[in-house]
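Hi again,

Forgot to attach this to my earlier email, sorry! This is the prediction with S-adenosylmethionine bound. I've pasted everything inline since the attachment limit keeps bouncing my files.
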Amino acid sequence: MRPSAELHSQFGDLDIYLFDQIQRGRFDERRRILDAGCGGGRNLPYFLSHGFDVRVADADAAAVGAVRRLAAAMGASLPDDHCYCGPLDVLPWADRSVDAVICSAVLHFARDEHDFAAMLREMWRVLAPGGLFFARLATSIGLERHLAAPVGRMRLPDGSDRFVVDEATLLRWTATLGGTLADPIKTTNVQNLRCMTTWVLAR
Ligand SMILES: C[S@@+](CC[C@H](N)C(=O)[O-])C[C@H]1O[C@@H](n2cnc3c(N)ncnc32)[C@H](O)[C@@H]1O
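Structure tokens for the complex follow:
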């Protein structure tokens, strides 16, 4: 089998920064995971095929449906009450009920700072002590001279409209939530068109 096909068969289109977290043991003891803003479930094949207790949430019914079909096709367990179609600021699960929240390429769709805050607080609410919060989001970090402001909803040089934050905002939220940085904040600058930041917190 080609190397690319072999990796794909195990990991699907798993985000490379999430792969890094798995490889470094961050999911060794964290078995109850929530993919918040799961989309079509590109980050889920590994977790579904390895017995993780998976929950998914997305505002888009088609996305949740696609993940249900993915799980069914894999013969993986994904109970109805683990699938939620709705906004991330009102999740149906109990406080401290998951060991990890994955929020990949979602927070930059926040309408404004209030929406950003509400989603964050809600995802944090369902995260158990000792849990991991993994987020990838568009930020202004490294792109300051190309943007109108460091925080807010704006057009990025790649032409997309996103809600972006800066490093100070991420550090302020880290403290406000009572989390600690599991890794230094890392940002990938895509040729000054957009910057994607990996923000990982331990609760
Ligand atoms: C770019 S996709 C990312 C999907 C997946 N996490 C990934 O990394 O491929 C963003 C997803 O977030 C969902 N989304 C955006 N804002 C949301 C919100 N406020 N509440 C729930 N889902 C939201 C969208 O419906 C979409 O499926």
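Residues 15, 37-39, 42-43, 58-60, 63, 87-88, 104-106, 109, 119 surround S-adenosylmethionine (CB under 6 Å). Strands lie at 32-36, 53-58, 83-85, 98-104, 127-139, 152-155, 161-164, 180-181, 186-190, 194-202.

That should be everything now.

G.
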